[in-house]
Design goal:
single chain, mainly alpha, 10 helices, 3 strands, Regulatory protein RecX, WH-like_DNA-bd_sf
Length: 221
């Protein structure tokens, strides 16, 4: 039976972060990351068979996945779902390894869905064209966070969509009035038509009925 015991650990001359493993039977395997070898506790005299080598490959892949994940979240704030999709779909890591990398990001506070949601909601609230709660919720849902997390953030921030609705409504009202200026309509019919068109426009943008009525009160008296 061939002896798969480790007789020597040799640094890769092209990458000092990796080791070649020399076995008693003359086989040389690797190179594997030094941290992977250390993590599984492999020493001279230990057996390094296929099972051990597979563990080393998994450790190497996990470390690489962590590095890829760190670079990915440094470019832009990401949700956990986006990180998992990136690692599995674009980098071809197994779901298990991707989850290990995500756990590392959580441990070292490199990712936080709650914080990202709060930041997104706060930024949206400060814009002139404040999006509707529905539109903002849909945007965040597409990023893989849960609806409960979004609702909580909206409540905590006391999110007010009125400013954005008023801004959008004012621009749209100008367009509607230009189209109706050549139509001879009774005042009541004109107001009804304005409200119908404007309300449908704001509704498509996701603004609530109560917000739309506040816009009517502000713009149409």
């Amino acid at each position: 039976m061939e002896d798969k015991s480790v007789c020597q650990l040799v640094r890769d001359p092209e990458n000092v972060q990796r080791l070649f493993i020399h076995l008693e039977d003359g086989t040389i395997v690797g190179p594997y990351l030094v941290m992977s070898v250390e993590r599984i506790g492999l020493r001279i005299g230990n057996v390094c068979d296929e099972r051990v080598q597979e563990l080393l490959r998994i450790e190497d892949a996990t470390h690489q996945a962590i590095e890829d994940a760190v670079v990915y979240v440094k470019r832009k704030a990401r949700t956990e779902a986006e990180v998992l999709q990136f690692l599995v779909k674009q980098k071809n890591y197994t779901p298990t390894i991707a989850l290990e990398a995500l756990a590392w990001l959580r441990k070292y506070q490199a990712i936080n869905d709650g914080e990202l949601i709060s930041t997104t909601v706060s930024a949206a609230q400060k814009t002139v064209n404040t999006p509707s709660k529905m539109a903002l919720t849909a945007k965040l849902l597409r990023r893989g966070v849960t609806k409960d997390q979004i609702i909580k953030a909206l409540q905590v921030s006391e999110y007010d969509e009125f400013r954005g609705a008023l801004q959008a409504g004012r621009k749209k009202l100008e367009q509607i009035e230009r189209k109706l200026e050549h139509e001879e309509l009774p005042p009541e019919e004109r107001e009804r038509k304005l409200k119908t068109i404007l309300g449908a426009f704001l509704g498509r943008k996701g603004y609530s009925a109560s917000t739309i009525h506040k816009v009517f009160d502000q713009l149409l008296g």
